[in-house]
Please model this.
Amino acid sequence: MTHAVVIGAGPAGLMAAEVMAQAGLQVTICEAKPSVGRKFLMAGKSGLNLTKSEAATAFSEAFAEARGPLAPMLDTFDAQAVQAWARELGQEVFTGSTGRVFPVAMKASPLLRAWLGRLGALGVQVNTRWHWQGWDADALLFETPQGPQMVRPDVTVLALGGASWARLGSTGEWAEVLQARGIGVAPFAAANAGIAVDWSVHMKKHFGTPLKGVAWSAGPYASRGEATLSARGLEGGGIYSVSRGVREGHSLHLDLLPDLSVPEVTARLSKPRGKASLNNHLRKVLGLPPQQIALLQEMARPLPDGLRALARLIKAVPIAHTGLRPMDEAISTAGGIPFSALNDGLMLRDMPGVFAAGEMLDWEAPTGGYLITACLATGRWAGLNAAQWAATTPAPAPP
Model:
């Protein structure tokens, strides 16, 4: 029986293992951590966003310049396919008001347990605490609790993740291993990251409060989404979606009233103020909550006297910051194996029989279901093509 090894037990690796086992291969998963799917489980703590239900064109555009190479993978395992797959594992899903799709259970653990049960029924072996060291000639080398182990599979799928949340397994250490074999790897960079801000003492009382109903922009990237004021800066989906723009050097702006135009804001500000303080006036006529008024004052004090100038400011508050939070705190990373180093089946051009999937590949997308969907889709694509390659490639002659 053809033997396949999958290195990495996140969504991409588990999906690759599933389709290869279904194709009749003997599959072994090797995972460096003591248990599988750790980042997957962490993602599910606040509600596992599996995918997003929206038009295919809009979905693909979320992947920016990588949408071309990813297109066939996402076309064959799209948002509808992800939902069907979850239901097959006994996990009913629902679609929220923004199109995001979640399991009814919200958590990742029931889905992961069902998935591992299916893999076990398919005969997939899972080795934990097997830390990949690279190759020794044509053999995969692992450090394990039993000491060094060497494995010579017929086909290999690499699914070791990106370079954020190292404590969950995504260390990015594999980049040096591939580079030593002559495989180019694009430098890692934080994606879907928080923004670091050095706050004044006046903001402390607002830490932990959300900024709702706002819009963010950084160069060509824009988002309508919530963010939270924290001691470290700004966190949340709205910020994550524009963090790429900040990384690329664009200024960050906040629209406190995205549903109103500058003339409409000006008209509301023109209402009689009487003896009310400016903050109270902003609260009464614009409906701005205390944390948003505080942020406006923090970033733009002293506020302009002219009503139209103030309205323009409210529609585009410049956010002073010190850059992105550290890469290891980011939800995902850009960089990795460029598509030019892979063939259409995600096999390394310079290493026949070695495939790659998931966040190891050089693509990025915002949160909102895109990340997990692409990991599943690329894992499935790599697994299918690895199985086909193994079936059509003659085994080497015995020594």
About this structure: The chain has a mean pLDDT of 95.
